[in-house]
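Hi everyone, sorry if this is the wrong subforum. Our group has a chain we'd like a structural model of before ordering constructs, and none of us has done structure prediction before. Sequence below.
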Amino acid sequence: MTYNHESSNTEDIKEKNQKKIFSENLNKLLQDREKSQLEVAKDIDVAPQTFNSWVKGVAIPRMGKVQRLADYFHVEKSTLLDEPREAIEFYTAFKDQKDAELAEKVVNNKSLANLVDLLTQLPEEDVSEAAHHITQLMGLRNKK
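Answer:
Right subforum, don't worry. Here is the predicted structure as tokens:
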């Protein structure tokens, strides 16, 4: 069996980078939501030492724990796993969490973002009419 040293180094670099990204995103959420490591660790039923290893970028949790964190913070898993995006900034810009979640949905869904863009171009009186049509469309879909 031949060992590919270059491939191993590339994987090590990718793993280190993933840990760093996760750590930065987790720390940002902790700071933005004013949560302590201990508080979140208890709430998601994880040992404080384990949680601390995630915060420091020493380890990265398995997908089940990533999902628990995402559910806890009301974000998509990608908010924790992917390169930091502007979407995570919504949580500092918006005081209401529902508004922040809605803003993140718009950022993460191109069709939804295009729709919002179109709506912002309408005169104010036409926005209400557009909302009425969308509500009717939803009613038709719910009847199916």
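For your construct planning: Residues 66 and 136 are 37 Å apart (CA to CA). The radius of gyration is 20 Å.
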